[in-house]
Amino acid sequence: MPIAELQVYSVEEADGSGGVCLVRCVGGTARSGQVYAAGESRVWLRDIERYGRTVGSFAAGHTARVRLAGAVVALLSRGQVLTSVPPDGHGLAELEGWLATVPPLADEPLPRTLRSLAVGGMRDERLPDGVRLRWGRVALAAAYRCAAAEGASDLVRGIELAFVRAYLLREFGPGPGGDPAALGREALALVDLTPAEAAARAGDWRALPREGIVHLRLIRNLLRWAGAARPYLAPGDPLAAALDAWSRVCRELP
Prior knowledge:
Blueprint: E1 5-15, E2 18-27, E3 29-31, E4 35-38, E5 41-50, E6 53-55, E7 57-59, E8 63-69, E9 81-84, H1 89-99, H2 111-122, H3 129-150, H4 154-172, H5 180-189, H6 195-202, H7 210-226, H8 238-250
Antiparallel strand pairs: 1-2, 1-9, 2-8, 3-7, 4-5, 4-9, 5-6, 5-8
Helix pairs in contact: 1-3, 2-3, 3-4, 4-5, 4-7, 5-8, 6-8, 7-8
């Protein structure tokens, strides 16, 4: 994860939950959702304001008014440099705590940022398997947060969940990596076409309206990940036969 550094110009307001600071980015790119080290404490970059409008990031050499979460904000001093840190064991535990709350807390990382952090941890082969599995569970929970925050359809949400579950299954196998049958069954439940119907539409997909083409592509992407369940299903399992039927059709989808 690229390192970003913020130098504090002033603390404009602060209370026990965080505050607003004027800062200058002196290294890398500062982004909403990043975690920064302030000594042994951590603060979270919640919002960035430049020239009176909210932005998602700003680069080295620029200043911004930022909202930081964390009680230590009140103790920050002029000239102090905050350094972004990758999520470590401590950060993972905090994220797990955040995701145990419903609805989301006001000071947790943005859903898309949270998912990106979690997927990165899940795929980091330098980490112990147990830690990667914990990151995978965070990524699954973050996918639900993303869907709720972005108004995503069930099919889009299903793709994000299936991607994470397929990765965990391939890396760690059934059990630790999840339930293959549940992956396949839940993916197929989101598809509103039969294989024959999808094949018929795929035969002349260029003539479909844009929404129809996108729909077929979403189905293809969902079932691509759901196919990770197939090697773990018993011969003769009806679910295996259904996934095989879709596997043949998906080759023809746009």
